[in-house]
Design goal:
463 residues; 22 strands; binds nicotinamide-adenine-dinucleotide; alpha/beta; 6-stranded mixed β-sheet; globular
Amino acid sequence: MTIGGEDVPAKDVFDVVDPATGEVHAQAPDCSPEQLDAAFAAAEAAYGSWRRDEDARRAALHAAGDLLLAGAGDLAPILVGEQGKPLKEATFEIIGAGVWLKHFADLPMPRQVIRDDDAAFVEVVRRPMGVVAAITPWNFPLILACWKIAPALLAGNTMVLKPSPFTPLTTLRVGELFRDVLPAGVLNVVSGRDPLGAHMTVHPVPRKITFTGSVATGKRVAASAADDLKRVTLELGGNDPAIVLPDADPAAIAAKLFGAAFQNNGQVCSAIKRVYVPESLHDELVEALADQAARTKVGPGLEEGVTHGPLNNRPQFERVAGLVADALSGGARAVTGGKPVDGPGYFFEPTLLTGVEDGSRIVDEEQFGPALPIVKYTSLDEAVARANGTHFGLSGSVWGTDTERAAAVADELECGTAWVNTHLALHPAQPFGGFKWSGIGVENGTWGLEGFTEVQVRHRAKG
Ligand code: NAD
């Protein structure tokens, strides 16, 4: 672990499983309560000088970004080993994380003069909060960590970061690399099982918790934070709908739809998780998506030509298998896939399900895996109502040839990002967050940066 700029071993360790084999392939330090205290103390000690030197912070974030860009080749196999994704995607994630750090390194801090007259000069500025506790999930361990590190550190905060126990290794290694470019204590990286996350949320030092993970855990985090009125940003689950309009061209959209549903094996918070299609296009779209599924190659992430690795962990593998089995026993048809791949590891065949309706678990719940329900609709109003009729509200998309019409339908979606003829199109300048149970607050862009600050009014009387 990295605590106060030092390499800190733990007395206890826990196992990390390679999802491609289902076997333990590494061990990670299990941070003790005393070590967590030390990490927060180090972050608190570093805060005083870190928050005062904006130029140094920008230079450090650039240097950190450069380390990731230069180190992607070494880091990517570590990420594949713990997460399962294909090497190319792992490399892409690490490069993306570097790009994120460098984007924020140049982002202006918002400030605004709201009054300058005979009586007063009044300016609204953004101040850092202090120490931030950051908790990340296992689907994109590194880029999601950098979505937090970049804005939090730019704003002048310091941080204690804890990756998921399923994927601690890349983040721990990056903590080690960043010791060369960040002052001691600015970024502390610890690892441990889920209770360590819970301890972070009740610890007296952090003023802010930034959390990415499931809705269930997010609610616990919010409840823990309430007692001390810690600020929270919660990036939680999604059940993103894609509405295909009657004028869409299935052959033209299939590759994009399939990609946005099956990227990272569907283990993306804002992946397409249900497709609504008019009866008139149903068969043609299903055929075009099945054609995409036929082009996939499922296998270990380090193997040449593999497009889809295993699911990340056994509970998730069992959850996806259970949801697919539930749909099939309820009368759904697996046009492709429908079952795990024989052999070791958590591999599951890319699965397209038809004959499913709202009310079945695979449509109503977040599957977070390579299984996509394709649901027929008769009227567009009904499709929009079904798309919105959920506790989730992360993102959604509308697909059609007449883009103005598609955009008008997208305007009706109750979610944080409404895409037209695309899905999963993200950018560091673009805020990302969810309505309803999909989260509180946003990450990225100036809006995400503001989430790591408090508003301060600076009012100087004149005359
Ligand atoms: P999870 O909620 O099980 O775990 C997330 C993190 O929280 C892990 O680091 C875990 O150790 C920690 N944790 C567990 N219990 C805790 C507690 N009581 N207090 C504090 N921390 C605790 O989620 P997961 O299974 O790792 O991730 C999958 C979920 O994350 C999916 O629902 C997915 O949609 C969501 N997700 C959301 C986004 C987004 O940006 N909205 C991005 C990626 C993933």
